[in-house]
Write a structure and sequence with these properties.
With 126 residues, this protein is mostly beta strands. The protein has a single domain, classed as Kelch-type beta propeller (Neuraminidase). The longest helix is centred in the last third of the chain and has 5 residues. The chain starts with a strand and ends with a helix.
């Protein structure tokens, strides 16, 4: 990874590992933390990390998932102490974030755990 961070989220998608935001720790006379609105991807075929477009606002405690081929980042806690109800989408092909594709969540949430549930077609057909 290009950034030393904690409280980031990661997902595996299309054979690559994506890392989203978190808190960076910068070593000076003492430890000082700041938000890191970064996005990175690891490609195991090339064994390389690549920095992608930064999130509009860095956060921790957010949820990350893939829904209908879109990477989504939900909620979280901004570095300034405000909670988020936003739903961001990341287009990995265009390397762009979209903020207004979905309405906000009904409330502001931190500490999200998000998962996907995929049923095989034969289960859904019955």
């Amino acid at each position: 990874m290009n950034y030393a961070t904690c409280f980031h989220k990661m997902i595996s998608y299309n054979g690559k590992l994506y890392i989203f935001s978190g808190i960076c720790v910068i070593l000076r006379a003492s430890f000082e933390s700041q938000d890191c609105p970064f996005t990175e991807v690891y490609n195991p075929e090339t064994d390389q990390w690549t920095i992608l477009a930064s999130m509009p606002i860095g956060r921790s405690g957010h949820g990350v998932t893939v829904l209908e081929k879109q990477i989504m980042v939900l909620g979280g806690l901004y570095y300034n102490g405000h909670y988020s109800d936003s739903i961001l989408t990341f287009d990995q092909n265009e390397n762009k974030w979209k903020e207004d594709e979905y309405p906000g969540m009904p409330c502001k949430l931190d500490g999200l755990k998000v998962c996907n549930l995929h049923f095989p077609d034969y289960v859904l057909d019955e």
